[in-house]
Amino acid sequence: MKTHVLRIWCVLVSIIQLNAAEDFQWTKNNPGSFYHGTFPTGFLWGVGSSAYQTEGAWDKDGKGPSIWDAFTHKKGKVFRNETGDSACDGYYKVKADIQLLKELKVNHYLFSISWPRIMPTGIKEQLNEKGIQFYNDTINSLLENNITPIVSLYHWDLPQVLQEKYGGWQNISMINYFNDYANLCFEKFGDRVKHWITFSNPWAVAEKGYETGEHAPGLKLGGCGAYKAAHHIIKTHAKVWHSYNNTWRSEQQGMVGISLTSSWGEPVDPHSQTDRDAAERYIQFHLGWFANPIYRGDYPEVMKNYIGRKSAQQGLGTSRLPTFSVQEKTYIKGTSDFLGIGHFTTHYVIQKSFPFLQVSSYHSDQDSAELVDPKWAAAGPSWLYSVPWGFRRLLNFIKTQYGNPLIYVTENGVSEKVQRAQLCDEWRIEYLKGYINEILKALNDGVNVKGYTAWSLLDKFEWNRGFSERFGFYHVDFKNKNKPRYPKASVDYYKNIISANGFPNPREVENWRKEAMDTCSATHQLLATDSLLTRMEMLTEIVLPTALTLCILTSIVLLIFYLRSHH
Ligand SMILES: *[C@@H]1O[C@H](CO)[C@@H](O)[C@H](O)[C@H]1NC(C)=O
Ligand SMILES: *[C@@H]1O[C@H](CO)[C@@H](O)[C@H](O)[C@H]1NC(C)=O
Ligand SMILES: *[C@@H]1O[C@H](CO)[C@@H](O)[C@H](O)[C@H]1NC(C)=O
Ligand SMILES: *[C@@H]1O[C@H](CO)[C@@H](O)[C@H](O)[C@H]1NC(C)=O
Predict the structure, then answer these.
(1) Whole-angstrom Cα distance, residue 419 to residue 320?
(2) Does the N-terminal peptide bond of residue 114 adopt cis geometry, omega within 30 degrees of 0?
(3) What is the DSSP secondary-structure string of 167-180?
(4) How far is the CA of 136 from the centre of ligand 2 (A)?
(5) Per-residue pLDDT tens for 458-477?
(6) Does ligand 3 have an atom closer than 6 angstroms to the CB of 166?
(7) Which position among 411, 416, 430, 462 bears the catalytic label?
(8) pLDDT tens readout for residues 172-214
(9) CB of 245 closer than 6 angstroms to any ligand 4 atom
């Protein structure tokens, strides 16, 4: 009798929980006008970057190769065959770049550690002291300048040896290797680093690395590889969180979270159930894929249903989506002290049935298609539309689905595609203003956001797009071997948002834009002069020596003629 009551009780509780978690209202929070106001005191403002995109020095001071070194060194993988071999030379410019952070007046800097720089072959038996020293010094310099380091342990550069030996994230053995690496970082840096991110955008690692092959390691394991990679990444994340909780937390008192990047999916018609379902699938297949196991103990129901059904149609005995055991679910649930959120853009989503296919794919599993509104501002690249209101909806969705977790925005920003230097980046100012304002609105909705990280400090290597997209507050002249940095107008604007802690009143906010646009024209001239100087440098370095050599050669020839004719 007792067990019966208990069972009924459990069923009731889970129904109530299910309902509580699914009451996201698709038609609420209509895009409104600009909201003037400030953020709560103590709100953290920062800027981010990642190791492979900025450091360069890919084979210096004992660093081992990563899958991105191997990938970019193959021809035909990256725009113009560009590589991150030297990128922004960030490895040699830590002090100078910290000055830029000071200029921006940020509270925190989010960066990633390159695993093969401190473990060249990925294993703890072989450490690279110079690599450890490098990150130790970086952390110390940041703290000396009152900048809080937020450190990501994985922004995509897996040691190449682990890829070759085990198949990278396809292999369950990554869990222990990564856990060793994470523990080393906690041991060496955890006395000073209090914000840890296990993985930055694992969605891209799985989908672009193992489904489409657009990213390293470039595998095209349609409909299977990405699910398996993600499965191992989620288990790894949980293991690292438990390591921290059991071994380091009591002494170091820090936080360990994960950073998930997701666009918002808006139903084309929010009053149509079909469209709402399609949009929900879109978000569950992106954000929920990782967030649901961590916050609710398992993959989203729609993923399990859709992938399971399609696998069965294909005659497979089991679903292509791996399953967690009961113990694993309990072990994984609740393993994030905060949720990092990366967000760039929004799509409209509609239902689209894919015909029965022998070839399976992550994309056709979703039965949905994405659209964009031609009216949306396309700042630079074709994939990034500025749709600020989508951010507030995404944040509210997180609040309802995952029990209002503590959120840090870990990536948000916009790129430009122009090749020539464009320092007056008014579209970036508009983008930041709009997106940051939606966070402010979300705070008023009760969403628990404690910090914002603009993406990114510098123009940098943009993965398979090479250097063709620029996300930086600072323009980097990659053609110049000194890789000089120049502030764009958005530096001034962001600085003002930070010092006012928001948007105090219309007059001030409008002034910021005007001032920023004025100063950038002046910087433009500086840049023009500098590139002229670079060309003159080239003149002295290449042209002059060549001319000199020619002169000497001619003189010798003439001398020989002279001597011959005098014989
Ligand atoms: C990249 O490398 C491939 C293979 O060698 C070559 O065909 C292609 O032209 C290269 N692209 C550029 C822009 O150099
Ligand atoms: C890292 O820096 C801290 C603080 O200055 C110092 O105590 C520690 O010895 C350094 N560790 C390494 C490996 O250099
Ligand atoms: C994982 O690595 C082990 C050791 O190299 C290997 O035996 C196994 O086949 C790998 N598994 C996969 C799925 O690649
Ligand atoms: C985290 O560590 C604390 C202290 O050791 C422990 O009481 C708690 O059960 C741990 N949490 C989990 C979920 O294991």
Answers:
(1) 42
(2) no
(3) -GGGSTTHHHHHHH
(4) 6
(5) 999 999 999 999 999 999 99
(6) yes
(7) 411
(8) 999 999 999 999 999 999 999 999 999 999 999 999 999 999 9
(9) yes
What domains sit in the chain, N to C, each tagged with a CATH number?
A: 20-566 (3.20.20.80)
pLDDT, mean over the chain: 91
CB contact set of 472 (below 8 Å; sequence gap of 6+): 456, 457, 458, 459, 460, 488
537 is catalytic: no
Q: How far is CA 144 from CA 106, 147, 148, 192, in A?
A: 14, 8, 10, 11
Q: How sure is the predictor about 124, in pLDDT bands with cuts at 50, 70 and 90? A: very high
**Residue range 540-564: mean pLDDT, rounded:** 71
Atom nearest to 75 CA in ligand 1: 2
φ, ψ for residue 516 (rounded to 5)? Answer: -60, -45
Q: Give dist(CA 220, CA 211) in Å, integer.
A: 5
CA of 249, closest atom in ligand 4: 2
User: Where are any strands of DSSP class E within 61-166?
Assistant: 108-112, 148-152
Q: Give exposure, 29-56, as e/b (b: 16+ Cβ within 10 Å).
A: beeeeeeeeebeeebbbbbbbbbbbbbb
CA dist 519 and 25 (Å) reads 44
Mean pLDDT of 334-349: 97
Distance CA 254, CA 333 (A): 19
pTM of structure: 0.90
**Residue 19 pLDDT greater than 50, yes or no:** no
165 in ligand 3 pocket by Cβ < 6 Å? yes
| pLDDT one-digit tens code per residue, 103-114 | 999 999 999 999
